[in-house]
Specification:
By secondary structure, the protein is an all-beta fold. About 0% of the residues lie in helices and about 45% in strands. The chain starts with 11 loop residues before the first strand and ends in an 8-residue tail after the last strand. The mean pLDDT is about 95.
Length: about 110
Amino acid sequence: MYKRVKVKKGDEVIVIAGSDKGSKGRVLEVYRKNDRVLVEGVNMIKKHHKPSPTNPEGRIEEKEAAIHISNVMVVDGSGNATRIGRRRGDDGKLVRYSKKNKEEIK
């Protein structure tokens, strides 16, 4: 069984460690098995493609690579990095909330 992660696809996050420290982006994919996330515009790599009949010149593609989930923090509505908690909402369902300002995170 995989661990429950607090970062979800579509969340706005800030990178808190590594070469891209301080950059913000939206989570494109969460890889729970490897504890990694793919963040838009962060940890860009160059992928080289050989020439082929469909693409005779070849090309260099620039795309995002996954970073470890511990190197990102969710950004709340006010733009601050925050830890995430879970509590019962008004309707009785579990909702995520910002531990910094106690607001719900959608």
